[in-house]
Structures are given as C-alpha cells and as structure tokens.
Amino acid sequence: METKEKIVLPINLSMNPYTGPWTFSEAGHLLRRCLFGPSFSQVSLAVSNGLDSTVNSLLSTPSFSDPITFSSNESVAPFGTSWVNSVYPSSGTAQTNTQNARNESLAAWTMNRIHHQSFSIHEKMCLFWHNHFANEATSDARATFDYFRLIQTFALGNFKQFAKEMTINPCMLVFLNGTLNNKYSPNENFSRELLELFTIGKGPQIGEGDYTNYTEHDIAQGAKILTGWVVQDFLSTSVSNTSSVFMPELHDTTDKTLSTKFGNASIPNANENEYSNYIDVVFEQLETAKFICRKIYRWLVNYELTDIVESTVIAEMADTLFSNNYEILPVLDQLLKSEHFYDISVRGSIIKNPIEFIYSVFNSTLSDFNYDLETNSTIYLQCYWLNMALGMNYLAPPSVGGWTAYYQEPTFSKLWANSSYIKLRFDFVSYVTLWGGINVNGNQFQVNHLTFLNQLSNPSDATQIIEDMALLFCPKGLDETKKIVLKTLLLNGLPDFEWTLQYNEYLADPNNPTFSDPIKQRIALVLDQLFKQPEFQTI
C-alpha cells in the first residue's frame, strides 16, 4: 500500500527579536495566546501600536479586587462586602452554609475576572500558575482566596520567591500534608512534589531512587528541612484569617546533606528560614530554570518539545530566566517578541481549554451584562459550572499535577476535544448565539451580535464581514469553501448589495427592531456555524 510522505516545513527556532510583517494575523496570534478571547478592536489596536508596545502592555500587572458576598447563606459578611477577612459562625449548619456561600463567591469571582480581563497576560498566567502549583479549595475559603491572591501577586514576578511563599502557604500545606510533617513522623509528600512538580522536575530514572535531577535521599532530606510548619485558625470563629506558623519543637534541627545532584550541599539548621535556604539550593540548578521554561513554552507556544526546540528555544529561555534570578518578565518578553513565537507552524497548534473556549465566544464578541449583584454573580456561577461540565473545575484541578491536558503525552490539549466535550461545546454555542443564552430569572447572558458586528472593519460589506471573522477567530485562517458557506448563510440567498442596504437601514434607526432583528438573526446564524468549526477550537 502506497503511503504519502509527510511534508514537514522548516521551523524558525530563532529567539532573536521578530522583525517580520506585523499584520492582523501576527497580532491576533499574540493576543489569542495572551488573552481569553481578544476582540477585533483589540487586535486592530495592537496592529497600530506595533509589536514592542503591545507586548509591553501585555506584561503589565493589573489591580486586584476581592470576592464579595452575594448569597443569603453567608451569615457574617454583609451582602455586597468582601468576606476574605471575616470569621466563621459557630453553628455547624451556619458554618457549612457560609463556607458554601464563600466557595460560590470565589467561583463567580474567578469567572468575572476572566470576563473583565485587562489588556494583560496576567490572567492567563494566573491560570498557568494555578495549574503549576495545583491546589483545590480547602475547607476554609479564606485560605483558598489567599492562595489565589498569592498567585495574582507573583503571576509576573519572581519564580524563586514565589516557590518560597507557596511552600508555607496554608492552603498548600494542608493540601500536601505539610502540616503532618514533623521530626517525630516525617511526611515526604510535600517534599516529593516540591521537587517533582514545582521546581526542578523529575527526569528519567537512571538508577534505584535516582531521577536524574534529584534522588530519594533528597526527598527524605527535604522532608526533614520542611518539618515544623502548621496551619492555624481554619474555620475560626474569632480570628479573621488562617495562617502558617513555625513550631520549633516540631522541627528537625539536625544538619541535612543533599545528594551529588545538588553538589552534596549541606543545609544546617536555620529553623523557620531553613526551607528558604533549601529552595535557594534547588534554584541554583539550571535544570530548575529549564523545567519551568518548558511548561511556559507548552502553555504559550506549543506542546511539542522536540530535541531541537529543547536545545535552542528552551535553552535560551532558561539562560534568560537563570541570569535574571528567576524573574519571569524577562523570559516572557523574550519569548513573545521572538521570531520563533510568530512561526506559522505554532499558530493554531493548541486546542482551547474550556475557559479559553467559553470566553473566546463572549470576550471576542464584546458580550456583557449588567444586572444586580446577585444576578450577575449567579450568571458567573453558571459559567463556572459550565466549565466544570467541559472538564475544567477552576477551584479543583484533578490532581497535584494539574489538568492532564498539560502533561499527558502524546494527546495533550486534544483531551479537551473528545466527543462528549465537543457536543457540550456545540450545545453551548447554540445556546448563546441562537437561543436565550445563560438565563437567571429571565436575565440573559448571550452573544451581543450587533455590538460584535459594529466593531468589524466594514460591517456593511458582507464579504469583509466573513473575512474579518476568519481573521479574528481562526488562527490559520478559513478555507474559501467555508467562507462561501458562511457568506451564503449571512446573505440568505440575497445579493451582496441587499446586505449593504439592510445594514444602512439599521444604522439609521438602530433601536427599531424592524431593522435590527434581521441583522441580528443573520449574524447569529453565522456565528453559530463558525464557532462550531475545528478552526475555532484552537489558538
């Protein structure tokens, strides 16, 4: 049986600054990777501003808000105020109800943040770090919030300091049994994950208990180093937040010696500072920089890490990170301005995760709503549940390793697109484009068809509408046959000039449903079909 040889195009692996064409295509690729659904106007502005200015803006850190009370089940913090520093009620039933209300508030808060993202990669990197330092909601929502606030604080900051802060974060200590680790009964769980998943990474096993980058001996020594940390005031009725506390009497004060992987480094007793000294040693290894750079690359560029990508792109990123003492911004700046990032081969190479999918529908179409606090929050809570149904529970990744789509070879992001998930995606698309959308007591969140249409380059030109949609939503474009199908759907069998006439009538009297409804209906049908295309499922 004759087989056709696969043609592999050469890939530009250069990390030199990109100086090629800067068009809607390149700007769209950048924003799709950095934002949850860029709009046509955002991409157009990025084209006007140029690559350097756009990347500089994307690397800014926005201000943060707190989650607020919207449920009557919250019995301490008043409606419309933040509960993050509020005690818990003493009654068992009231305590359970309050915890549930706060978890729902957290869930709505995460969806609201993504929907109203600033022009910054920050929100995308928050999800990256949540997947990296994977954790699930604890029994105290205040601790869970503090974990997310830590991620917000360091999303574009110093990775080494971030790792130190996360090591003694109450939520993480509880999640990985760090609070059970003491000199009388060492618990190696946190120590193992700190090396394997959070810092240097597990290499090939080359001997008994030898994982290339560290050994079982290092895990055991690390566990001793991390002894003595406990968490206090979970669900406290008198103290406004949880805290991690060092207990000297529970700490192993012996000197610890690491393996040859770390140069047989000696870690003498330093009590509450000992964990920090240990992490310094781990971050002295270039492999630690390579490990996190691989994950950043898979998040922002491509999940395929070939030997040549490893020896060129990853090596240069790691050198930049290492030489900048693990500051993340220089690496992101280097990557997002590089020739390799804009190579055509990496465009459309990642299937959208559920959050990227849902908010590329809403954010790219400038769709929004503004009801009362309880309704707004309940709508966001429904968005959260929808993401859960599609395989991504923001508050509870499936394991300490994060979501499997980011590490399961060889499928990676294809896991988001199995037959069950695709059906749910298509149902969602029809709900928010053709039907009533997300509905809470008659209040709807659906695609704003006319607002979306009006931002395009020439809404009165049927051909240009389809071209603009293809540019915005399809990383590698849309073939001409599909464009013709979409245009036919838009025109409903009428000639092009009829669309121009109808749109101009609508512009002259936009509040008249006689003119606006037919326009809205045709755009809805086109978006419903476009959002179900394979090309739309990728970034």
Spell out the blueprint of helices and strands.
Elements: H1 24-34, H2 40-49, H3 51-58, H4 92-115, H5 122-132, H6 141-154, H7 159-167, H8 170-175, H9 189-198, H10 216-225, E1 229-232, E2 243-246, E3 256-257, E4 266-267, H11 274-282, H12 286-300, H13 307-323, H14 328-336, H15 354-362, H16 373-389, H17 419-433, E5 438-440, E6 443-445, H18 449-454, H19 462-473, H20 480-491, H21 496-508, H22 513-530
Antiparallel strand pairs: 1-2, 3-4, 5-6
Helix pairs in contact: 1-2, 4-16, 6-7, 7-11, 9-10, 12-13, 13-14, 17-22, 19-20, 20-22, 21-22
Features:
mainly alpha, disordered N terminus, globular, two-stranded antiparallel sheet, 3% strand
Query: Within the largest sheet, what's the order of strands?
Result: 1-2
Q: β content, as a range?
A: under 5%
N→C terminal distance: 36 Å
Radius of gyration: 25 Å
Query: Which bin fits the share of residues in helices?
Result: 40-55%
Name the helix and strand elements from N-terminus to C-terminus, one letter apiece.
Answer: HHHHHHHHHHEEEEHHHHHHHEEHHHHH
Alpha plus pi helix count: 22
Which geometry do the CA atoms define? globular
How confident is the prediction overall: mean pLDDT?
Answer: 97
